[in-house]
Amino acid sequence: MAISVNKVYKTVLLILNKEQRGYMTPEEFNRIGTQVQREIFEKYFEDLNQYTRMPQTDVDYANRLMNLNEKMNIFKRDGNATYVPADNNFTLPTLTHIVGSVTYEAKSRLPVEMQRVDRGEFYNLRLSPLVTPSEQFPIYLFENNKLQVYPNTINTKANAGTANVAVQYIKVPDDINWAYTVGNLGQFIYNANTPPTVDFELHNSEFTELVLAILMYAGIVIRDPQIVQAASGQLQADRANQKQ
Amino acid sequence: MSLINQTNEEYYAGEKMFAVTAAPQTVFTCTFEPKLTLATSTEPANFDVQVSTDNGVTFNDYVAGTISVVNDNTVKPPYNQQTITLSVAVANSATTLVRVVLKAGALWNNYGSYEYVKLNDIVNNFLVAYTGIGKLIPLVKRTDVIFHAKRGLQEFSYDTLNSIKTLELDLPPSNSVIIPQDYVNYVRMSFVDNMGVLHPIYPANNLTTDPTSVPLQQKDGSFIQDEYGENTEAAQSTTRTRWESANDRLITGEFDEYFYNANVYNWSWRKETYGRRYGLDPVVSQGNGWFNIDRRRNVISFSSDLKGRIIILEYISDGLASDLDTKVPKMAEEAMYMHIAYSILAGRSGVQEYIVQRFKRDRSAQLRNTKIRLSNMKLSEMIQTMRGKSKWLKH
Which of B72, B73, B133 lies closest to A52 in CB terms? Predict the structure, then answer.
């Protein structure tokens, strides 16, 4: 599903080099490519917010929300939070970018989604007999990248290894890398293995947007306003179309 | 997917039988509806494992080793599967049987369990069906749903659900019984006669009372304080003492040999009214006795003529005494959903009033349906009742 970094680089160079406009080094490409991937990736969250407020169609491939979810699925992960007895809280899996849902998973029981609460609720809920948290309906406080869960019996069970607190999260996209060796003439030769190439993790459907956005930055690098203008114009048209 | 998971044997007989003929066996799997629990420091086990070596003629409790049980609801959600593991295997033979059998309390709770849905399930079902993208409640906190579900159940318990609890009590010499742990309000008090027939007992509203405070007093009327500076209290109020020793016939107007009764003209009155009654008050003209709730000691006190009687105490609870495993009649399930939906929408800002009103009407209609359903009006029973009246119904 990933987009080949070599394919993108070659496409960018092809467009840039048209009429001998300029050149982009692999180092520049790697940095700009990582930046653009992050931009597109971060845009997903805003898009998701907008699409959830729009009526969607049931027709295959036309449901924007479903399409967006397909793009985001690449970054969705599930991992266990680690209990730290000294702090009496849980640390998140290493690659966590944004926490989705947190579940309490006791042995031989179906997972139960924990409710995220803020500090005020955390105090108030525990004081209310009707809604006081239980193992059937637990809560958690998310502060300083750590999870403080309630009721405390979950901590005890996690410590004993009879239960887990699992986190469903969005991971950070990896930095891309167009790996190369330098040839006899000083030219850059694509070498996928040393150091390992890292492809774009984005969905295949993002190829054109990826190329256009890189071109926009490339235009700035080589100081060619025509390329910046053309690429940004095309990008804007694409994005406007997505929001209609 | 079927909602019934346990077998007929597990439901009706409250047991599951295993033939241990091929090889020694340590693991036994059942699908009882209730969770199987081992004995703890606070409660006994709710099941037994028994072994028979004579093909089921006699069964003895398994004592060769220890028993462990895992209640697993991940196998076929939301049902339970129990895996019972014995530390020492049961030896196989052609006539060896092992049975897992529910104890009486668990068995009785299991009977009729299909009539109910758990409050926990109502919360989960509501979140699935009524909330989410594209629905009227796109986002709601689960704690809000739990709160409204529990409050709804409390309200329904008071006047809609058939959740009257009945206690049979021997009235002790103190003539009072402690208010039940999950008591919210009484429905009816009765004593039981020798034939088992109930005789209603009425509240002693205007006749007597149990004071909430009985301070000890000095001669000048001032209160006496203890070493902590608090008023001292008498062990029992004089009102209660007098009430307990009262002759109820003086209140009820029931005849006795001397006719010294309230509202009965005695022999010293003019001869033409001898023995006649005037001004009989129906509230007090009953010989079954009275009860009163003593809010000082939080006990239910009974009048002196009920000493030693068997008392039936019918009361309502709020349905929440046992947390989210609380059972709600299925006939009230839809009313519960509507109640939760209405309560959430009514308390939320920015919801158009017509939507709130729609849900208010839905809630009201569903509640009415539930009341009608649970009132158990059957045509044949109504016809039988009306046969004793002047109006005959044909069917």
Answer: B133
Residues A35 and A90 in one domain: no
Q: Do A52 and B74 touch (CB under 8 A)?
A: no
Q: Which residues contact A236 (CB under 8 A, 6 or more apart)?
A: none
- B320 CB neighbours in chain A (<8 A) are 130
Tokens standing for residue A106: 């006791």
B305 to chain A, closest Cα gap in Å: 41
Cα B326 to the center of its chain, rounded Å: 11
Report the run of H or E that residue A181 belongs to, with start and end.
strand A180-182
Quote the percentage of chain B above a pLDDT of 90: 52
B323–A134: do the CB atoms touch at under 8 Å?
yes
Range of the structural domain that residue A210 is part of: 5-74+174-243
- Cα–Cα distance between B107 and B14 in angstroms, integer? 6
Asked whether the beta carbons of residue B70 and residue A108 sit closer than 8 angstroms, the reply is yes
**How many domains, chain A?**
2
Using CB atoms, which residue from A55, A110, A125 is nearest to B143?
Answer: A125
Q: What is the pTM of this model?
A: 0.79
Handedness of CA B146, B152, B158, B164 (dihedral sign): negative
Q: Do A115 and B141 touch (CB under 8 A)?
A: yes
Interchain pair A65, B133: CB under 8 A: yes
Joined together, the tokens standing for residue B188 give: 């009816």
pLDDT at B257 over 60: no
Q: What is the per-residue pLDDT for A170?
A: 96
Interval B201-226: pLDDT, tens: 999 888 888 899 999 999 999 999 99
A164, A201: one domain: no
